[in-house]
């Protein structure tokens, strides 16, 4: 099977993921699907013109049938946050779309790995898993990969260290109840907490900026897409090339820390089949409390749909 990806939704996020895959020369083929035919035709044409500068990705307007020989399907369709809205405000509108399209994807290919990007990503990931419980390790949401990247960027900038040498996560909901895991944060392999590299008020400021970044970006330019475009394409690349990389994606919790039957982000190993391993993560008592709070928030929203 070739390294093919089908992206459902050719708006700002879907097209930026495709662009980032082209820049990585990661996929052999990318099919784009959207209800707006004029838009998807135009996006594909524009994206095709980026290919000669980078590699050989074949990019085309597609349909659900393209999932049949794709390794990964990425869902980015639906409505996005407007000024003043939280991600959870989108739930009713996007849940209806997800209920319709997830069966169309698995009907074509029961082995495909499904990456949810549409918000609220944790709720919609759980919805997809509730529709296909036997595929729980094949279904994941982009979760807090973006929030963690924002976090690492801000820590790196504050300390004048390359963010790639900062290992730090924001976990839980991709949204307002997410939390920073300072107890595990490392520079190289040195624990940040043990050396008190950052004062408490600086840590609070960094987390607040990371958590509220989407609101700030939406205020200025209506939507966010470069960060998630790069993050989601990295996740897809990891699946296509079986990288076995540890990433904080949204997935079904099965009891760790008393959290069960809810999707949120904790670090897991990602490879060709999807989630290839769940790993033991050491959280402080306070962080465990924040994790359970995040799970409660998500559970309450899920029950309301
Ligand atoms: P957008 O409006 O630019 O694009 C959405 C596209 O979905 C549109 O082109 C629309 O025609 C299409 N669409 C709607 N219903 C469809 C259907 N049934 N089938 C196929 N296509 C359909 O929005 P965007 O800025 O690209 O955002 C897309 C989603 O990604 C939003 O839910 C947004 O909140 C989310 N998002 C997630 C993250 C994250 O970190 N998870 C980050 C940014 C945005």
Task: Kindly describe this structure.
This protein is an alpha/beta fold. The chain folds into two domains: 138 residues, Rossmann fold, CATH 3.40.50; 159 residues, L-2-Hydroxyisocaproate Dehydrogenase, Chain A, domain 2 (Alpha-Beta Complex). 42% of the residues lie in helices and 20% in strands. It has ten helices and 14 strands. The strands form four sheets. It has a six-stranded parallel β-sheet with strand order 3-2-1-4-5-6, sandwiched between helices. The mean pLDDT is 95. Nicotinamide-adenine-dinucleotide (NAD) binds next to α1 and α3.
Outline:
By secondary structure, this protein is α/β, with parallel strands linked by helices. Helices cover 42% and strands 20% of the residues.
Keywords:
single chain; alpha/beta; L-2-Hydroxyisocaproate Dehydrogenase, Chain A, domain 2; 2 domains; 3-stranded antiparallel beta sheet; 10 helices; binds nicotinamide-adenine-dinucleotide
């Amino acid at each position: 099977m070739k390294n093919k990806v089908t992206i459902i939704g050719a708006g700002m996020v879907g097209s930026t993921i495709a662009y980032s895959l082209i820049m990585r020369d990661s996929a052999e083929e990318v099919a784009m699907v959207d209800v707006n035919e004029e838009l998807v035709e135009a996006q594909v044409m524009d994206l095709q013109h980026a290919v000669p500068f980078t590699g050989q990705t074949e990019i085309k307007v597609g349909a659900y049938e393209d999932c049949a020989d794709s390794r990964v399907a990425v869902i980015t369709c639906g409505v996005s946050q407007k000024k003043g809205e939280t991600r959870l405000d989108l739930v009713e509108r996007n849940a209806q779309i997800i209920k319709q399209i997830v069966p169309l994807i698995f009907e074509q290919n029961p082995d495909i790995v499904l990456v949810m990007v549409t918000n609220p990503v944790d709720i919609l990931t759980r919805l997809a898993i509730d529709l296909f419980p036997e595929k729980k390790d094949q279904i994941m949401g982009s979760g807090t990969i973006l929030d963690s990247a924002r976090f690492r960027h801000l820590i790196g900038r504050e300390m004048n260290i390359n963010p790639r040498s900062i290992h730090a996560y924001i976990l839980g909901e991709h949204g307002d109840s997410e939390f920073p895991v300072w107890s595990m944060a490392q520079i190289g392999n040195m624990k940040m907490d043990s050396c008190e590299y950052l004062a408490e008020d600086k840590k609070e400021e960094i987390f607040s900026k990371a958590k509220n970044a989407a609101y700030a970006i939406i205020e200025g330019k209506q939507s966010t897409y470069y960060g998630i475009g790069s993050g989601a394409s990295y996740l897809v690349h990891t699946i296509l090339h079986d990288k076995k990389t540890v990433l904080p994606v949204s997935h079904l919790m099965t009891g760790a820390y008393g959290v069960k039957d809810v999707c949120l982000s904790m670090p897991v190993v990602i490879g060709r089949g999807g989630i290839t391993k769940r790993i033991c993560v050491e959280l402080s008592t306070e962080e465990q409390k924040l994790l359970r709070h995040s799970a409660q928030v998500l559970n309450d929203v899920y029950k309301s749909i």
